[in-house]
Specification:
- By secondary structure, the protein is mostly helical.
- The protein has eleven helices and no strands.
- It starts with 14 loop residues before the first helix and ends with a helix.
- About 4% of the residues have low confidence.
Length: 321
């Protein structure tokens, strides 16, 4: 059974045969509009604030546009069902919606890298430098993205072809699962690093209001993106096990919008409300918190010496009495 072939006319497939349900135009249109709105809002924030430390937020704009493109492809499929081949639109939709959240995660990595610089944590280790944090995790995500791209391409292309081979569809699912698993592991490691930086005793940014709000935004984005990633992981695992049997998460529109669309939209909302564009300083990050000068250190040492001397004198007077 694993090597069997299912045959049907590719050009005659309807949108319901691709999805297992008839996609709602209203929901797809709403999602498209909200993603375009998110891209517009973040772009407006960047233009208004002109914070050179926050240009990485263009990644959020790019993700929103890619997500919107995926839902536009879905709308095109609904409107052209039974009139044209939906194959290319289906592959494009799956690739855009499944892969684009990887880019959104990079915005979280870069935010923590910027915080590390402000907090002077980058002086403690070369691994805490902003480029090491952002590019390190982006590198892990890029590898996971490539694995997912290979898997989703095999899965979507083979599944929507005229004669899909069951074993090949399952292979694409398992490859996608491997990529999603790597992504989850990478995100867990990043979360641990973010918590460690936030709570570290040498974090000089602690006590600033922006510090709290920036980390709240990072954790909010992590929470919502993780919900979506777990959903996709379970979905493709189930697809690898069950295909070609019908049913499952892949063919449930309610779960798709509740666990894919909504969490990603909420992650965008977090990036907009708790925006690094407004919370990060506009001045050079390494100068935001002044280094302790020699004079400051001498003054501090002098105060400590005076305090210790007064304490000793007080104790001497008590003993004399």
């Amino acid at each position: 059974m694993s090597n069997s072939t299912l045959e049907y006319d590719l050009d005659s497939l309807t949108v319901e045969q691709y999805f297992g349900y008839f996609p709602s135009l209203a929901l797809a249109g709403t999602a498209t509009g909200l993603y375009y709105a998110a891209a517009l809002i973040v772009t407006a924030q960047l233009i208004y604030k002109r914070n050179r430390n926050a240009w990485f937020m263009l990644l959020v704009v790019l993700t929103a546009l890619a997500e919107a493109g995926g839902y536009v492809a879905m709308i095109w499929m609904v409107k052209n069902s039974g009139q044209a081949s939906l194959f290319s639109a289906y592959v494009a939709m799956q690739c855009l919606i499944v892969l684009s959240p990887n880019v959104l995660q990079a915005a979280s990595y870069t935010t923590v890298g910027k915080i590390s610089t402000i907090a002077k944590m980058h002086t403690k280790s070369k691994f805490l430098k902003p480029k090491a944090i952002s590019w390190g995790f982006v590198g892990l995500d890029l590898f996971a993205l490539i694995v997912q791209a290979v898997g989703i391409s095999i899965w979507a292309t083979q599944k929507s072809s005229g004669d899909p081979v069951v074993s090949t569809v399952k292979l694409g699912s398992w490859i996608t699962v491997a990529g999603l698993g790597l992504q989850l592991v990478s995100f867990c490691l990043f979360t641990l690093l973010a918590v460690w930086i936030q709570r570290h005793k040498d974090n000089k940014f602690r006590g600033y209001k922006a510090h709290k709000w920036l980390f709240l935004g990072v954790y909010g984005a992590i929470f919502f993106i993780t919900i979506r990633n777990v959903f996709r992981f379970v979905e493709f695992t189930q697809s690898a096990v069950k295909y070609p049997d019908p049913g499952g998460l892949t063919e449930n529109q309610t779960l798709f919008y509740a666990l894919e669309t909504l969490p990603i939209l909420l992650a965008f909302a977090v990036f907009i409300v708790l925006s690094p564009i407004f919370l990060l300083p506009t001045t050079p990050l390494h100068d935001y918190i002044p280094d302790e000068t020699d004079e400051d250190a001498m003054e501090k040492a002098g105060k400590e010496f005076s305090s210790a001397t007064e304490t000793e004198e007080f104790e001497t007077v008590e003993l004399a009495a």
